[in-house]
Design goal:
Keywords: Cell cycle, Cell division, GTP-binding, Magnesium, Metal-binding, Nucleotide-binding, Septation. It comes from Radiobacillus deserti. With 193 residues, the chain is α/β, with parallel strands linked by helices. It has a single domain, classed as P-loop containing nucleotide triphosphate hydrolases (Rossmann fold, 3-Layer(aba) Sandwich). The chain has a seven-stranded mixed beta sheet, sandwiched between helices. Bound molecules: guanosine-5'-diphosphate (GDP).
Length: 193
């Protein structure tokens, strides 16, 4: 996909603020610091449109990025940050539930995991949550550049096992450093648009 325009349209805290133009949406989820913003920025050829690492205490928002006037990437605030208070965690839960349960424009979710490590319990919960709401899921295993070529297959296998993926589920190895996986990611995501 050739990205010719990308702009943030709204940082929403509630349903009332979601865009009303009925364009398709692809949501992006992942634990804090996994490389989600870097993934978005790489996909849209921007250095820093998507903000990196939302720290606890900051307002947690769903960020809607309009791409090519055609669809949205919806950046879901990262999870699994140990220092987040119970209140913040609950607010996060309510916000994502409100979005994933009811959003008709939502076509697919990208779950970004760290290819170096086994998915965390939070990753597993996010995967189960998305499956429960019957959102098609594409797993992006990022930071591919940090793993030696001979070890890549074993890491992918571990990710599939831990998330209990079936053979039809899609996992794309990706690197925001080198751009590996970008074409495949677009090819797959375009099918949902
Ligand atoms: P977010 O909190 O999930 O949005 O994570 P960021 O995109 O801010 O990335 C967290 C850190 O990981 C930053 O220091 C990035 O430079 C680094 N990072 C992200 N993706 C990659 C990648 O594919 N390869 C490498 N080597 N580093 C990455």
């Amino acid at each position: 996909m050739k990205v010719t325009s990308a702009e943030i349209v709204i940082s929403a805290v509630s349903k009332k603020q979601y865009p009303g133009d009925f364009l398709s949406e692809i949501a992006l989820a992942g634990r804090s610091n996994v490389g989600k913003s870097s993934f978005i920025n790489k996909m849209i050829n921007r250095k820093s449109l998507a903000r990196t690492s939302s720290k606890p205490g900051k307002t947690q928002t769903l960020n809607f990025y309009k791409i090519n006037e055609q669809f949205y990437f919806v950046d879901v605030p990262g999870y699994g940050y140990a220092k987040v208070s119970k209140k913040e965690r609950e607010a996060w839960g309510r916000m994502i539930e409100e979005y994933f349960m009811q959003r008709e424009n939502l076509k697919a979710a990208v779950l970004v995991v760290d290819m170096r490590h086994e998915p965390t319990v939070d990753d597993q919960h996010m995967y189960e949550f998305l499956s429960y709401y019957e959102v098609p899921i594409v797993v992006i295993a990022t930071k591919l550049d940090k793993i030696g070529k001979s070890k890549r297959a074993a890491h992918l296998k571990k990710i599939k096992q831990t998330l209990q993926l079936s053979n039809e589920d899609i996992v794309i190895p990706f690197s925001s450093e080198t751009g590996e996986g970008k074409e495949e990611a677009w090819r797959v995501l375009q099918q949902f648009l």
